[in-house]
Design goal:
With about 425 residues, the protein is α+β, with helices and mostly antiparallel strands. It contains 11 helices and 14 strands. Strands 1, 2, 3, 4, 5, 6, 7 and 8 form an 8-stranded mixed sheet that branches. Strands 12-11-10-13-9-14 form a 6-stranded mixed sheet.
Length: about 425
């Protein structure tokens, strides 16, 4: 983009003080292919024996790096990761595949491992060939600067993978596995083209816990479903959606984990899910042009899947999102969105709350409805919508942001 975007009003006050993860070394480099005066390549070196799991976009026009990851994730082993920003390497045909292979091979040569143990991701403009030589050229200097995973290196890593993001995004936690303390730290990039279908834009989470690949895969899938798969900014699923979780096994003295139901794993699961949800929420808080963070909770649906569909219909509705952007408590648009979802809903039992205030009940506006406190809630930065559709016990929550003119401006100028 031609100029740095103004920081989102919903951004955290500062980048978190990230925990170091044993067995993870981060480094960044600047290619200059799109962005001037900033790093745009991230390289991660992982300890021998690292396991990996991931969720990838279901887009039928997936990028070349997504195809590479999909091909090699089943082995569950990793030694490195390379990510570039500014060019998505999507819709680039055979040249895109070659670009991934060249970049992965260059990292594998540095780490003396098989290329299949190196994972890749790209984000940026679709349809432009990736000038992979510019990436490969910065790798020697980048590897010379590898120095673990302290707080400063996490922030540099998060900054390097940004595109239209207005702030670097990270989350961290400490967990106990059978009395052994382990670290979990992750970063994410994403701001627009966010309606994940098995992932979010790009997110990478690292832990020094020792988790078998099959167990890590189950934990990743479950965590993604209630975090990255429960957000939307603009209803558009990216060609590049990628979530990768790496477990280096470098924590000393940890008990052996054999399944997701191991009692010693409970705290780790909770903390991993917390990190995922924190990162997913930050993506929404940095939605292109966003000024409000919106929670949509749906109850009383036929099942949880139906509830998710209804919640997304509300969260993705341009009419709902623009009303909230304009501080208009127009709850009729919520009724409209429920009706268009295609899922079962009992019109005459429908109930709606905004900001915890009853707006509609039993299919009609509540008696003596006063819009004043509702309008005051909608004027705030955090807006809560809850609906009950009266047909079952299914429930789900989806998080989104409002739709302002800033979204148009950012995307109209994206390639300039």
């Amino acid at each position: 983009m031609g100029q740095e975007l103004e920081k989102s009003p919903l951004a955290p006050a500062e980048f978190p003080d990230m925990r170091s993860v044993r067995g993870v070394s981060l480094t960044t480099g600047a290619t200059g292919m799109k962005y001037k005066g900033r790093d745009d390549v991230l390289v991660v070196e992982l300890a021998e024996g690292t396991t990996v799991a991931g969720m990838l976009t279901q887009s039928k026009t997936s990028s070349a790096p997504v195809d590479w990851c999909r091909k090699h994730l089943s082995a569950g082993e990793a030694r490195g990761l390379i990510v570039n920003a500014g060019n998505a390497n999507a819709f680039t045909g055979a040249a895109g595949n070659e670009a991934v292979e060249k970049c992965v091979q260059a990292v594998a040569d540095q780490l003396a491992c098989r290329p299949s143990r190196i994972f890749a991701a790209s984000t940026g403009v679709i349809g432009e060939p990736l000038p992979y030589d510019m990436i490969i050229d910065v790798l020697p200097d980048a590897f010379a600067g590898v120095q673990g995973s302290d707080a400063a290196s996490w922030q540099r890593a998060a900054e390097a993978i940004r595109t239209t993001d207005t702030f670097a995004k990270g989350a961290t936690a400490t967990a106990q596995i059978g009395g052994t303390e382990v670290a979990i730290s992750g970063i994410v990039k994403g701001s627009g083209m966010i309606a994940p279908d098995m992932a979010t834009m790009l997110s990478f989470i690292f832990t020094d816990a020792k988790i078998p690949a099959d167990v890590l895969s189950e934990l990743t899938r479950a965590g993604v479903e209630k975090s990255y798969n429960a957000i939307t900014v603009d209803s558009d699923t990216s060609t590049s959606d990628t979530v990768l979780v790496f477990a280096t096994g470098s924590a000393d003295g940890q008990i052996e984990i054999t399944g997701t139901d191991d009692p010693g794993l409970e705290d780790f699961i909770n903390k991993l899910n917390t990190v995922m949800l924190d990162l997913a929420h930050q993506v929404v808080r940095d939605g292109e042009g966003a000024s409000k963070f919106i929670s949509v909770c749906v109850m009383g649906a036929e099942d949880d899947v139906a509830a998710r569909t209804i919640a997304r219909a509300i969260a993705n509705s341009p009419l709902v999102k623009t009303a909230i952007a304009g501080n208009d408590a127009n709850w009729g648009r919520i009724v409209m969105a429920i009706g268009k979802s295609g899922e079962a809903a009992d019109r005459d039992r429908l109930a709606i709350q905004i900001g915890g205030i009853d707006v509609a009940r039993n299919g009609a506006v509540v008696p003596e409805y006063d819009e004043t406190p509702v309008a005051e809630h909608v004027r705030g930065q955090d807006v809560d919508i809850a609906v009950h559709v009266g047909v079952g016990s299914g429930e789900a929550t989806v998080w989104t942001c409002d739709l302002t003119h800033g979204y148009i401006s950012i995307n109209a100028e994206y390639r300039s």
